[in-house]
Amino acid sequence: MPNEKQPWFVIDRSEALAGLLLTSREGVRVRSENKKDDGVDFLVEVSDGEPVSSRLFWVQVKGTTSPNPDDWKQNVKQLFRPKGSSIYLPVCVFVVNVRDNRAYYAWLAEPTVEDKRATLRFPAGEFKELDRPAVDTIVNRVRAWYDVLPQQLTPA
Which residues of 65-102 are buried (b: 16+ CB within 10 A; e: fewer)? Predict the structure, then answer.
């Protein structure tokens, strides 16, 4: 994945494949946010059947034609920010190889629950295979994070 801008078909295909993976999970709605080049491609809504959900996370999609992870990892490493950045929602980066339809993900802002508190961690970018079970894991992490968040925001 060279540093120059990817051809349109790499971008379109990678976003289509990422959207397909995400929407394979029931209760997940994907809104395309790539009208601006602000780093957010999808705003993903996790729903439990309600018409509108406030359980949201962002996804940045990067397309590649290289099967070599060293190629695309170099290009996405600038996305990983240190703790204290201005991110307040869970954020994932998806890298999709459009030649073989394989995808990988890493958390940019990982939702965690520690001592019944919702926190965001900013890991260094450990990529894992993105498949249907991984989507389930991502959605379940986001759901658990939002389950405990109201307790922190509501005064005792």
Answer: beeeeeebeebbeeebeeeeeeeebbbbbbbbbbeeee
Residue type at 27?
Answer: G
Q: For residue 40, is pLDDT > 70?
A: no
Residue 34 pLDDT: 62
Q: What stretches of the chain adopt beta strand conformation (E)?
A: 28-32, 42-46, 56-64, 91-97, 102-114, 117-121, 128-129
- Give the single-character DSSP code of 50: -
Rounded distance between C-alpha atoms, residue 100 and residue 92, angstroms: 21
User: CB of 63 within 8 A of CB of 14?
Assistant: yes
Domain residue limits, the chain? 8-153
Distance (Å, whole) CA 10 – CA 16:
10
| Residue 96 main-chain phi, psi, to 5 deg | -120, 120
The fold adopted by the segment(s) 8-153 is Trna Endonuclease; Chain: A, domain 1 (3.40.1350)
